[in-house]
Specification:
single chain; globular; eight-stranded antiparallel sheet; alpha+beta; 5 helices
């Protein structure tokens, strides 16, 4: 961490690094560091993954899957299996799924993977985040190799190895509602909804924030209020012709989802105020969100 901070603080395009024992000197045009190192024998051993069968995928496409899902993984450590992202490799597609029990994000990439049967593993969030930080050229090819307890993400210039998360991932196929379960359909502009959610956050408060979405005719009203703070309301035109339905959600969960989608519109499918809502960007990207009923 010290070395990284030192290098980031130097403005030189070229640095000269020299070593004398366990002391390192870093010299730039107008800056100099002398840093103490540690005994390399104390560094944890790096597991060696023998080259084997893997799947080649467009790096940009896989990073897009990561962006659309990882935000929904659990932040707390109590639900261990939820602290990772489910990676499924099927013969004809790759799927990533993340959930914290209150929401679930799923993204698929149609791809002839070459595998004969489905393989799945729970990959730690930090491993996928490290891969995203390493991206310098999204036109590259990424190779994914799964082992019994490890995953290797291989780029031409770097490699990420991560210990798989142990535990049973929830059956996401039982969580995602079928179209017959969510008959209400509204098509909403992403930017308008994102702006309305931002307004709602101003008056929703930090403790248990709630936002009320009211669908009526061709209109969506977004309302939030908190005692001691105030109330906000936003109205927007949408494509919806059903009965009036009012549903409450955590506005942070909607806002985080909208930040991940580059598309201009999202379809929201729902049944009633007590059933899960389904945000659908395409057949390959969906987001399930549980309502607030209390």
């Amino acid at each position: 961490a010290t070395l990284l901070s030192a290098v980031r603080s130097m403005s030189s395009d070229v640095l000269q690094i020299s070593q004398a024992g366990q002391v390192y000197e870093i010299v730039g045009d107008k800056a100099f560091f002398k840093l103490n190192g540690d005994d390399p024998d104390l560094f944890p051993s790096i597991p060696v993954i023998e080259p084997g069968a893997g799947v080649d995928v467009s790096l940009s496409a896989f990073v897009d899957l990561c962006s659309r899902t990882t935000f929904a993984a659990a932040k707390e450590m109590g639900r261990y299996a939820f602290n990772g992202v489910l990676l499924e490799i099927d013969p004809h597609e790759i799927t990533l799924v993340a959930t914290d029990g209150r929401r679930l994000s799923l993204a698929k990439l149609p791809l002839e993977t070459g595998v004969l049967e489905r393989r799945s593993a729970v990959v730690p969030i930090k491993g996928l985040a490290q891969l995203q930080r390493l991206v310098t050229d999204e036109d590259q090819t990424l190779r994914i190799e799964l082992r019994e307890s490890m995953v290797a993400l291989l780029l031409p210039h770097a490699e990420v190895q991560a210990q798989l998360v142990q535990g049973d991932f929830p059956d996401f196929r039982a969580v995602v509602p079928g179209e017959e379960d969510v008959p209400g359909i509204a098509t909403i502009g992403r930017d308008e909804l994102a702006t309305a959610i931002q307004r709602a956050l101003v008056t929703a408060g930090d403790d248990g924030p709630k936002v009320e979405l009211s669908f009526s005719g061709g209109n969506l009203t977004v309302v939030s209020s908190k005692e001691g703070i105030g109330e906000s309301r936003s109205d927007m035109g949408i494509d919806y012709s059903g009965e009036t339905v009012v549903i409450r959600f955590n506005p942070n969960f909607i806002g985080e989802f909208l930040k991940t989608m580059p598309e201009n519109q999202v379809t929201f499918r729902f049944k009633d105020r007590s059933s899960a809502g389904l945000f659908k960007v395409s057949d390959e990207s969906v987001y399930v969100l549980m309502p607030i009923t209390s």
